[in-house]
């Protein structure tokens, strides 16, 4: 059956994925309306669901506030609009008039225009044969001779079927406490998730999950969506008094608009949606598979074990010290050595030097070349920290181009971390950034960039461009994407990590142009367990940078055994960030052994199926499982923070094993039947005491 079908008699469009269906129709007024989103339907079954809307109950109700594919501001609509328009004569609203459609393999485009004004809207839908994720976006075009203002332009609106109750899952947080998972009953009215910071933000992330309040990790239907956008964004979730729920989302924030000049169009980023059975675990695994197959540029590769110099040296970076650290890192089995902040210009603290991207001559008298060659000679790739979007007022760049930063004339220029934000919306700024980056990478043989962004926007003005303040947000993100795209085209072997003071810019848009993400500046293993649980709801372990650093932890002051720190970091893309010159010989030996252990199982962590067998908790065992696609082997990572006498010792029941199979423990040699493991469980042998952890690698005997 074709993934996209149309029933002319009822006007129903049916989009089919491997396990789900999405149906919509154009109603009698010309508006695109939702029909169904859930388990697979035949065209006839979808038509049966396309019932006309009930008449308005009173003169105070208007059209239902949930149930349109892109609710507009106009007529008798009173819910949160996805599209708000102001025309040159002051008129508002949009009236749907269908003008045609186009089907191109797995993509459907429905075209409309306003009944009076020359404004066109195209709704785009894309389905793929290997995923249940449906990508949706909107393109708005001004075909007239006068300007049009988009007060709001969302990517898509999603409608859920009626349920007795609804629960909202999302993440909240702050710097160094990102991705805190929340699952709360959805209140009636409107709930807004947003970032007004110019970046994706530490405080929220543009994804959500909804269920009927009954889903668990293993059971229940879950609807979810994620926005592929790396700037300010907003998602509005609505629960109506008559028992419906839906949500709309897209780029931008309240208080800004999108100007459309004659002939100009605005394309929103994809807002991808997914319906799954099998609980939150199945939803996460479906998103992980989608990101690996259709988002990441090089998902088939293994993320290398990296070392980062920041916690060892801070700003005290020089050739001699870095070479000494590199030798110790190589002895641990590190594959990628990354020099962090402090290698360039007058950078001796965070107060000066940002923007002057040339190696500091007093610290690298012959440039970076000798260090890069030394690192390569040790068998490691070489990486470098950069922050291209920022400038210190105390820098040659700022003294030459004070107009290049976000600002309003006559207003103070607020500094955060002693720096200002360069206006990447300006083409000359983006071209400047691309120019020095491509020279830096090409001239020095750089293999990896840690691309950081250490503050939110403020005074987000673009005074020398008409409507600059409104145009800034979308243009900034698109030029950022353009620099990354051009840089990767220049240097196909280059790999990039996205970072914004940790997890401040992680989303499907930036992951389409980078290879991994720094999930948080908080490297405390205990805190990381919760951060990693929230991060992994949508984003796969292959993308999640996780470091082993020194204790007491510089942020929390907590002391955790080296083994525990390694085992927590093994749940993602393993990195090391401690001061190796201060590690004892015993710690270096143990670290090397743990790095070698990770390399033996990272194919499971980075490309396998994730099962969260038990969540992080203070006094119980937390277990995550990673399994090969063919179930030939599986890895359990088990952690216990606090040991309490008399606490129940519950068996761990691995999932996804081959029925009737036998699995050998790679460490002990013990053989287990998969039925016993899955139904009766495995007694994970955790060492006694607090901060206890272990790994169990089970290999199927064929």
Automatic annotation (TrEMBL):
Reactions performed catalytically: Hydrolysis of terminal, non-reducing alpha-D-galactose residues in alpha-D-galactosides, including galactose oligosaccharides, galactomannans and galactolipids
Region (Disordered), start-end ranges: 50-79
Domain Glycosyl hydrolase family 36 C-terminal: 622-698
Molecular function in Gene Ontology: alpha-galactosidase activity
Listed EC numbers: 3.2.1.22
GO biological process: carbohydrate catabolic process
Enzyme class: hydrolase
Protein name as annotated: Alpha-galactosidase
């Amino acid at each position: 059956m074709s993934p996209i079908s149309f029933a002319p008699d009822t006007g129903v469009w049916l989009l089919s994925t491997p396990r789900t269906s999405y149906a919509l129709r154009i109603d009698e007024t010309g508006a695109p309306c939702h029909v169904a989103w859930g388990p697979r339907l035949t065209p006839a079954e979808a038509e049966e669901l396309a019932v006309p809307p009930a008449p308005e109950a009173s003169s105070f109700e208007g059209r239902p506030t949930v149930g349109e594919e892109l609710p507009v501001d106009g007529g008798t609509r009173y819910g949160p609009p996805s599209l708000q328009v102001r025309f040159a004569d002051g008129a508002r609203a949009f009236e749907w008039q269908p003008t045609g459609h186009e089907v191109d393999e797995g993509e459907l485009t429905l075209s409309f225009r306003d009944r009076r004004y020359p404004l066109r809207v195209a709704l785009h839908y894309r389905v793929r044969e290997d995923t249940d994720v449906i990508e949706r976006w909107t393109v708005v075009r001004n075909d007239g001779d006068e300007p049009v203002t988009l007060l709001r332009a969302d990517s898509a609106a999603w409608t859920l079927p009626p349920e007795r109750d609804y629960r909202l899952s999302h993440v909240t947080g702050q710097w160094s406490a990102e991705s805190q998972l929340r699952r709360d009953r959805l209140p009636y009215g409107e709930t807004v998730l947003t970032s007004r910071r110019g970046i994706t933000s530490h405080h929220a992330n543009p994804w959500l999950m909804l269920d009927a309040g009954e889903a668990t990790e293993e059971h229940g239907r879950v609807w979810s969506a994620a926005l592929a956008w790396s700037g300010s964004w907003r998602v509005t979730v609505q629960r109506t008094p008559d028992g419906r729920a839906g949500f709309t989302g897209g780029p931008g924030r309240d208080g800004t608009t999108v100007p459309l000049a004659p002939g100009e169009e605005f394309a929103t980023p994809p807002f991808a949606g997914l319906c799954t059975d099998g609980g939150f675990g199945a939803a996460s695994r479906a998103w992980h598979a989608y990101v690996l197959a259709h988002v990441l540029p090089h998902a088939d590769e293994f993320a290398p074990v990296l070392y980062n110099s920041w916690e060892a040296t801070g700003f005290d970076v020089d050739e001699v010290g870095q070479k000494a650290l590199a030798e110790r890192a190589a002895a641990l089995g590190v594959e990628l050595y990354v020099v962090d902040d402090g290698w360039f210009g007058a950078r001796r603290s965070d107060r000066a030097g940002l923007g002057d991207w040339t190696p500091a001559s007093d610290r690298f008298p012959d440039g970076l070349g000798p260090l890069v060659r030394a690192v390569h000679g040790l068998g490691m790739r070489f990486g470098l920290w950069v922050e291209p979007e920022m400038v210190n007022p105390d820098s040659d760049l700022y003294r030459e181009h004070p107009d290049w930063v976000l600002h309003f004339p006559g207003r103070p220029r607020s500094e955060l971390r002693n720096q200002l934000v360069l206006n990447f919306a300006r083409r000359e700024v983006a071209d400047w950034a691309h120019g020095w980056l491509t020279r830096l990478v090409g001239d020095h043989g750089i293999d990896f960039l840690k691309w950081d962004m250490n503050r939110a926007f403020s005074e987000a003005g673009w005074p020398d461009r008409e409507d600059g303040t409104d145009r800034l947000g979308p243009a900034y993100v698109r030029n950022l994407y353009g620099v990354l795209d051009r840089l990767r085209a220049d240097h196909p072997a280059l790999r990039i990590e996205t970072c914004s003071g940790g997890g401040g810019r992680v989303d499907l848009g930036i992951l389409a142009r980078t290879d991994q993400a720094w999930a948080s500046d908080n490297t405390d293993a205990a805190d990381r367990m919760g951060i990693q649980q929230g991060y992994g709801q949508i984003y796969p372990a292959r993308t999640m940078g996780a470091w082993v650093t020194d204790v007491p932890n510089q942020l929390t002051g907590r002391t955790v055994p080296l083994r525990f720190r390694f085992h927590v970091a093994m749940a993602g893309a393993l990195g090391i960030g401690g001061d190796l010159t201060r590690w004892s010989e015993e710690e270096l030996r143990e670290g090397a052994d743990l790095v070698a252990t990770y390399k033996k199982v990272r194919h499971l962590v980075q490309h396998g199926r994730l099962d969260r067998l038990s969540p992080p908790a203070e006094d119980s065992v937390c277990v995550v499982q990673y399994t090969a696609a063919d179930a030939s082997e599986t890895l359990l990572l088990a952690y216990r923070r606090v040991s309490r006498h008399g606490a129940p010792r519950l068996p761990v029941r691995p999932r996804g094993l081959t029925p009737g199979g036998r699995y050998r423990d790679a460490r002990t040699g013990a053989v287990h039947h998969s039925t016993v493991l899955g139904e009766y469980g495995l007694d994970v042998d955790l060492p006694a005491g607090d901060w206890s952890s272990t790994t169990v690698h089970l290999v199927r005997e064929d």
